[in-house]
Amino acid sequence: MRERLAQVLTGLAVVCLALTVFLGGLGFLIAAGYLALAEVLPPAAAAALTGLGALLLAVLLLVVARAVMLPRRHRASPTEAETGEAKTGRASSGLGAALVPLLRENLALTIGSVFAAGVILGVSPRARRTLWNIIERQL
């Protein structure tokens, strides 16, 4: 169990590093766009266009994220529904299976809570240490 936890944490650390490098690269790309526009436009107009481009990219990413997160709306035949429920029941524990519908019904609250927990764990070393101690006791 500890080995699996170490693998997951290592993978998460690599993903965080990749996101950091990605954001740095995106920042340099935006700066390069500004510098290119500043040669043909006044600096204020170049900054406005660069900011507008960044906002459009953010809106596009939010639209894509929303499309990915929305549940698919199709009617399953009774056999498909039973098969899906059987797979879910086998793949998760009783508590996990009971929580999934509740979390899906309260998606905004769930996402907000997870975000808040991430911010708290990201800012507070004491919270991270406490969580780690709880996880170690469970293993």
If you had to describe this structure to a student in words, what would you say it looks like?
- The protein is mostly helical and 139 residues long.
- It has helices spanning 2-40, 43-69, 78-91, 94-105, 107-123, 125-138.
- The protein folds into two domains: 1-71; 88-139, no CATH class.
- It has six helices and no strands.
- The model has no long low-confidence stretch (mean pLDDT 78).
Any idea what the radius of gyration is? 22 Å
Q: How far is the first residue's CA from the last residue's CA?
A: 7 Å
**Sheet with the most strands?**
none
Give the overall form: extended
The overall average pLDDT, rounded, is 78
Tally of DSSP β-strands: 0
**β-strand amount:** under 5%
Residue runs with pLDDT of under 50 for 5 or more positions:
none
Percentage of residues in helical conformation: over 70%
Q: In the residues, how many domains can be counted? A: 2
Q: Pairing-aware structural class of the strands and helices? A: mainly alpha
The topology string of helices and strands comes to HHHHHH
Number of helices: 6
